């Protein structure tokens, strides 16, 4: 049996607070918030199971709640602007979700929790960068504890985790396991997905990651299920296959090439009983939401055709990890 997995990095402005001036991105994130209910409708319509890896700060309705859940020990990045806490101190955020929909997401998380087959996972509490100089393993543990506390406000126990900025760090997996996580998303096998830092990453890596959406670069994108192994006292590491890049009007035929590649890769996984793991950020749909949602629906409809033809099954990350652990 093949498996189709989707994981989403749900962040709102916390996904790039250090580089995205909010006054220039308000409409972008408002569009994101508007597209999430539509995504949920599509996932329910096509019976697709999804993991929403959520920044823990978003589990709050008011700043007073957020203050209660902030960890006592926080990351000490050498570059302090990477810290969400530094951002809150210097830039400030609103008092609640109604006045500041860019930094709170509780109402959206309630919609996600109410939709069948949607798993709410973790993107750490503070969009924590595991490969940046200055932070350490103890600080990471406190961040995960804070994430679990925040999720409890929705009655959720977090089981799946995605490292922010894809800064996968194998040294941190034991802490993930000890803090209750069964599954972690790992990066594609290709060299250009080895992301060590936000700083000083080579242009060649970034160009290859962009080109990989359209050209046949790197390793095959579907993964044999037998190759996914669990080490003792660590979560199952579930490799990503491909980033669903957003629609861009300037790319003309490349938009069609991107969708067609994904469809053919899902078909290969279905026919060969392998895993295909698609991921993106909901905010990626912020610039051209109508066209991006149309492409998503085409992909989900194709998945359903492959399910009916070859038996590929949709699973979120925790469901897949549970199956592999049996």
Task: Indicate the topology.
Elements (H helix, E strand, L loop, with lengths): L2 E8 L11 H24 L4 E5 L8 H7 L14 H7 L15 H8 L4 E5 L14 H15 L8 E3 L10 H6 L4 E4 L16 H9 L11 E2 L11 E4 L2 E2 L9 H20 L1 E7 L8 H22 L2 E2 L2 H9 L1
Parallel strand pairs: 1-2, 1-9, 1-10, 2-3, 4-5, 5-7, 8-9
Antiparallel strand pairs: 6-9
Output the keywords.
326 residues, alpha/beta, TIM Barrel, seven-stranded mixed sheet, three-stranded parallel sheet, 10 helices, 39% helix, 13% strand, globular
Give a written overview of the molecule.
- The protein is an alpha/beta fold and 326 residues long.
- The protein has a single domain, classed as TIM Barrel (Alpha-Beta Barrel).
- It has 10 helices and 10 strands.
- It has helices spanning 22-45, 63-69, 84-90, 106-113, 137-151, 173-178, 203-211, 253-272, 289-310, 317-325, and strands at residues 3-10, 50-54, 118-122, 160-162, 183-186, 223-224, 236-239, 242-243, 274-280, 313-314.
- Helix 1 (22-45) runs parallel beside helix 9.
- The mean pLDDT is 92.
Main structural class: alpha/beta
Number of separate domains: 1
Distance between the termini: 15 Å
Average pLDDT for all residues: 92
Strand content: 5-15%
Number of strands: 10
Query: Which architecture name does CATH use?
Result: Alpha-Beta Barrel
Segments where pLDDT lies below 50 for 5+ residues? none
Q: What is the molecular shape?
A: globular
Largest sheet: 7 strands, mixed
Rg measurement, Å? 19 Å
The CATH superfamily bears the name: Glycoside hydrolase/deacetylase
Instruction: Work out the helicity level.
Output: 25-40%
Number of helices: 10
> What is the name of the CATH class?
Alpha Beta
CATH topology type: TIM Barrel
* H-E string: EHEHHHEHEHEHEEEHEHEH
């Amino acid at each position: 049996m093949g498996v189709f997995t989707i994981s989403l990095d749900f962040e709102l402005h916390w996904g790039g607070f250090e580089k995205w001036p909010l006054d220039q991105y308000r409409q972008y994130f408002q569009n994101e918030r508007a597209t999430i209910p539509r995504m949920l409708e599509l996932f329910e319509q096509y019976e697709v199971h999804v993991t929403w890896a959520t920044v823990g700060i978003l589990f709050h309705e008011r700043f007073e709640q957020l203050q209660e859940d902030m960890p006592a020990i926080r990351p000490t990045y050498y570059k302090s602007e990477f810290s969400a806490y530094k951002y809150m101190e210097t830039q400030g955020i609103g008092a609640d979700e109604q006045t500041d929909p860019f930094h709170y997401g509780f109402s959206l998380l309630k919609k996600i929790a109410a939709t069948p087959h949607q798993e709410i996972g973790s993107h750490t509490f503070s969009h924590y960068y595991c490969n940046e100089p200055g932070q350490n393993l103890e600080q990471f543990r406190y961040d995960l504890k804070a994430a679990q506390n925040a999720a409890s406000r929705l009655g959720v126990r977090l089981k799946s985790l995605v490292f922010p900025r894809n800064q996968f760090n194998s040294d941190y997996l034991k802490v993930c396991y000890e803090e209750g996580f069964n599954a972690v998303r790992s990066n594609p096998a290709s060299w250009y997905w080895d992301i060590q830092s936000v700083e000083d990453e080579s242009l060649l890596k970034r160009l290859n990651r962009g080109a990989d959406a359209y050209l046949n670069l790197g390793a095959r994108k579907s993964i044999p299920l037998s190759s996914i192994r669990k080490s003792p006292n660590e979560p199952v590491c579930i490799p990503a296959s491909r980033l669903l890049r957003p629609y861009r009007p300037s790319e003309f035929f490349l938009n069609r090439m991107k969708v067609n590649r994904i469809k053919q890769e899902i078909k290969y996984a279905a026919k060969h009983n392998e895993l295909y793991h698609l991921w993106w950020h909901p905010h990626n749909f912020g610039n051209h939401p109508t066209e991006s949602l149309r492409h998503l629906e085409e992909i989900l409809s194709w998945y359903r055709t492959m399910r009916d033809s070859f038996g590929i099954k949709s699973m979120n990350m925790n469901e897949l990890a549970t199956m592999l652990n049996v």
